[in-house]
Model the fold of this input.
Amino acid sequence: VDGGSTDDTHRVIQSNMDSRIHLIIEKDEGIYDAMNKGFSLAEGDIIYFLNCGDYLFDDTIIKEVCSTFISERGIDIAYGDVVQYGEEEEYLRMERDSPFHVMARCGINHQALFVKKSSFYNMRPFNIIYDVYADYDWLLNGLCNHNFKLKYLNMPVVYYQAGGVSQQEVARHFPERLHIIREYFSKAFNISLIWRDPVECLYFIVIYVYLIFETKRFILR
Done:
């Protein structure tokens, strides 16, 4: 799904087309609008979003993910680690299933998430009112309101290109993050993983009580 890029993306895609690929080239309302369009056309059992500039860690990832969903049918999301790359040296970002990561660090990169399509049926798609944190909102909605079950793969799954929209003008998009935190803060304590690590649980409480009550002027109205 391409919003009308001018960087030769169309030629690259078209040179690799086959009958399994649906190509949409049209103006959209942002990244998450495009992702919603892609989801509406996806015909498989597992949904995965890979953005331009990102690529899978190796050619065994899909097999590993499928095996996980087959062996553990009760899970909604399987996820792994992200290897970020850019002008500087590559580094591994651990996507641990802890309250500190899922809540305090803006969730989990959507490039690390493989989601059972049926889990989407009873919940809204990505909320496009958020420019960069719609995936954070979506994940917390799934965890807090739909009791999503997570499975950590304990392996790198994707190379993530640094410098994307979510890393640009962080301060300008900070109100989105606070708005989402405010919506889900009280519900977060219903997530079993919040209580797995007492130290991180305390850290989570202290940091977010401060963010919510001391930065009200940033909250979206």
User: Anything to note?
Assistant: The chain has seven helices and six strands. The CA atoms of residues 181 and 212 lie 8 Å apart.
